[in-house]
Amino acid sequence: MEIMNFVHIVFIFIITASISFLGTKLLLGFLRDKKIFDTPNERSSHRKPIPKGGGIVVIGAVLIAFVVIFNSRDDTYLPLIIATLFLALISWIDDLKDLPAGLRLTAQFISSTFVLLMMSPSEPYFHGIIPTWFELIIIAFIWVWFINVFNFMDGIDGITAVETISIGSGLFLIILISGGRSEVGLSGLVLAASALGFIWWNWSPSQLFLGDVGSIPLGFIIGWLLLQILPTPLWPISIIIPLYYFSDATITLIIRCLNKERFWLPHRQHFYQLATNRGLSHAHVSLTILILNMCLLGWAYFSLIFPLISILCASLNVVLILFYFRGVK
Q1: Beta strand 50-51 with 37-38: parallel, antiparallel or unpaired?
Q2: pLDDT tens digits along 235-286
Q3: What span, in angstroms and rounded, lies between the C-alpha atoms of 218 and 164?
Q4: DSSP per position, 261-314
């Protein structure tokens, strides 16, 4: 891919953020008119019905930008765009009708497998440690889990917009500095721009939620971008940058399994939810995660020189925040 100049990059960033911001404003009125709301229940973090479905514009702005940026790449991104649209459609139906979990998981595995087979990297994901056929199975399961991580963690105002901005801008900056794959960096920047346009409407007190139509495709696209880095010498940043979301969701799942709880049911036991349960505001928690993510970005940069030390230090940072959210003194 030809490297875009600075003016092109800034233009794409501004246009994507503007489409997301203005499109979300228009969509908000439509959702209110059609009474498409997220109704509070005992597991909700909000107390009144809030429109849901903001992800329609967020994902739409991202895919439009992908088409504009990569239209000369011989349809390289076409499988990703098709799979994202398919997942967005299934997720939107789920927002409206509550589809069975098995159907949702099947759609996620179909989408992930389709892209893995159509867009496999030139180098193995795990650097040749395990056979390719077994590697693809493991990667498919990790990717589907990451998709669900984004869905599970989207439970308070601003949190997933903050995470998307952090991961997207982090990928762009690290790849810009290190000279990695420019299309991955540009894709990250597009994600950050779209989330930035949305966060105005989603910041506490939120006027609009992403819905599954936003969180599921976002996890799908971000997971794919991280997988593009995994086979390269920059592999530590694919672990470090999303570490908070992945850790909170995974540790919570393990705890629920150890407690013999029905882990597949909705709950309020994620660490960020424990923080709001004990009185911290949505804005406080989301800003804390933003600050943590800036620290993780620093460790991701440091990992270019000392990968294992950086992963360890980043993990310690995440553990400290998890203890803080849990209220352990």
Answers
A1: antiparallel
A2: 999 999 999 999 999 999 999 999 988 877 778 899 999 999 999 999 999 9
A3: 8
A4: --TTS--S-SHHHHHHHTT--HHHHHHHHHHHHHHHHHHHHHTTT-HHHHHHHH
Q: Is 248 domain-assigned? A: no
Torsion, CA 134, CA 136, CA 142, CA 143, rounded to 10: -170
* Spatial distance between the Cα atoms of 276 and 268, rounded to a whole number of angstroms: 10
CA angle 141, 145, 151 (to 5 degrees): 150
* Residue 37 located in a structural domain: yes
Domains of the chain: total = 1
Residue 275 forms part of a structural domain: no
Cis check: omega of the bond before 266, within 30 degrees of 0: no
The pLDDT score that the predictor gives to residue 74 is: 52
Joined together, the tokens standing for residue 93 give 């139906």
**28: domain range?**
6-233
In-domain check, residue 55: yes
Question: What is the model's pTM?
Answer: 0.95
Q: How far apart are CA 295 and CA 274, in angstroms?
A: 22
The Cβ-side half-sphere exposure at 291, using a 13 Å CA radius, reads 9
pLDDT grade for 39, boundaries at 50, 70 and 90: confident
